[in-house]
Design a protein that fits this description.
112 residues; mainly alpha; Arc Repressor Mutant, subunit A; 6 helices; 2 strands
């Protein structure tokens, strides 16, 4: 079965391709900008949700930034969402748990 322009893939991987294409088409302009900003955060650096919102062009939408990052699988879309923290310097949320987020940041030389 071939769907939405994907090539010959079987079962599970074909479903992932279809899902990625669906989400890519259904992303809002704000979502695309947030993901682009977060992708550009270099290793060893962090931004706050508020800074990401400002760089995405909507400074007051910092809560929406967290929702965007939680919705899209960072591994699948190659988004380093663990590099986004709260304005008070605490970790904030993370899809795979705060311990995992702290571990990833520690590996990059960031201690929170």
């Amino acid at each position: 079965m071939v769907g939405f322009g994907s090539t010959r893939q079987s079962g599970f991987y074909q479903n992932i391709t279809i899902a990625k294409e669906y989400y890519a088409k259904s992303m809002t302009f704000f979502t695309k900008k947030v993901l682009k900003v977060v992708r550009r955060i270099p290793r060893g650096r962090v931004l706050t949700y508020k800074e990401v919102a400002a760089r995405a062009g909507t400074p007051k939408a910092y809560l929406a930034v967290g929702n965007v990052l939680n919705r899209y699988d960072s591994r699948e879309y190659k988004i380093p969402c663990h590099r986004v923290i709260r304005s008070d310097g605490s970790l904030g949320g993370y899809r795979w748990g705060r311990k995992k987020k702290a571990k990833l940041l520690k590996q990059e030389g960031i201690f929170i």
